[in-house]
Design a protein that fits this description.
Largest sheet: 5 strands, antiparallel
Radius of gyration: 21 Å
Helix content: under 10%
Structural class: mainly beta
Distance between the termini: 34 Å
Strand order of the largest sheet: 1-12-11-10-9
Strand content: 35-45%
Length: 493
Amino acid sequence: MPRSRRTPTTATALAASLAVVAGAALAGGAAPAAAAPAEGAVAAPAKFHDDFNGDGYPDLVVAAPSGTVDGAARAGYVAVLYGSAGGLDTARRTVVSQSTAGVPGTSEAGDAFGATLASADFDRDGYADLAVGVTGEDLGGVADTGRTIVLYGSAGGLSGSGAQDLRPASLTEGNAYATGLAAGDWFHDGSTALAILSEDHLELYGGWGRARTPARAQAGHPFTDFPQDFTPTGLVGGDFEGDGADDLVVTGRKWYLEYLQGHSLYLKGGGPEGYTRTEFAGGPVGVAGDIDKDGADDLAIGDPSVLEHGEYELSGGAVQVWYGAAGGPGSGQPEVWQQGSGGVPGAYEVEDRFGSDVSLGDVNGDGFLDLAVGAEGEAIGTSAGAGAVWLLRGSAGGLTTTGVQHFNQDTPGIPGTAEAGDLFGSDVRLHDPNRDGRSGLIAGAPGENAGQGFAWVLQARSSGLIADGSWNFSGASVGANGANARFPETIAE
């Protein structure tokens, strides 16, 4: 079987390659910048990147880009469940779509509002904000150009008030602008910026300020000129070399002869000196965090359809973990996790799709990040594609299967029954909405109930995740249209 090779690229000076454009021009006049918050508003940035109402509790964002809105199929909507001392409650929520007052555009068939998500306090007013990818949006008569809409937080939570419209520099059919979104200090100036990925290039927005007037940096290589046969799927940000500079990883796939395999690009953050780019055998989904607490972020990459990685031949999917080090992801060799080896329960089988999604969080409160891994195609009994989720534990030595856990809908205590096509574990998120220091599990099953879709909530204890007391909710549970919504296809990390 063919093997991927890591190919270094030449450094490019960021200062020479970026042309900054005034933020007011970015939206093409479609949505004016919101007014700056009133004097006396909270000046410090939000404590949590996902606390939209500023109450000190992390909130959960789930989306149904396939959801029907005002009769428009696959128009899409986003739901925010607000955290509290009592945890999550579907009664405390906000649902936003392009039919919400103040949100640019209208709900149209195939828009896919909520296809991608990224949150941060962009305007530093003390409330987290949400960037929403609308990858199927038609603009100027050009199909599937895509757009990004920024929703701002407030004491009342997330709303359409003052929402901003960020459009691609040029309209290209099938561009799928906002294929990936990531918030981070991409300009290395101490402020939070937004990276927006499309099919063939990457754009950065920064300089929000209190006036909410972001500017676009239209960059050349290495933000353009993606490798031939490479299909980008998302973005992951982190300080992968522990040098204090935020870096970016473009996740994706690439054709090798007749095989479509995981492939990723590593953009090393260099601040004014520019970014450099290398390629490595990655995958389509990923998450970053300092698993071993050595001061450098680690990268967990899920490749649910991987056929080959180095000496491994995998047919049921795998997760690679690239521990933070000089050189970043792609230098050295990753740790590879798969079913049936290294203490991971199960056996890797065709169509298991182990690594469908990955998420990091401290489940048992020991100070180390644990890794949740979804396998949406896992067969439970004779039910193909029922899906399952694994939890690998973090430690000073990295991930371990000591105390590994495994859940599906037939696990005692979990509501429902494992059925063919449920896709339990298609999306996973480890989340601590009550700030008790332990992250519970949110697991999506978009195929549940013939495509209605549900999300399951499992609580966390010092022993790990527990199935007892778990519950689920759907789009209808939060007051949205649940029919054929495939809820939740997207869960914000």
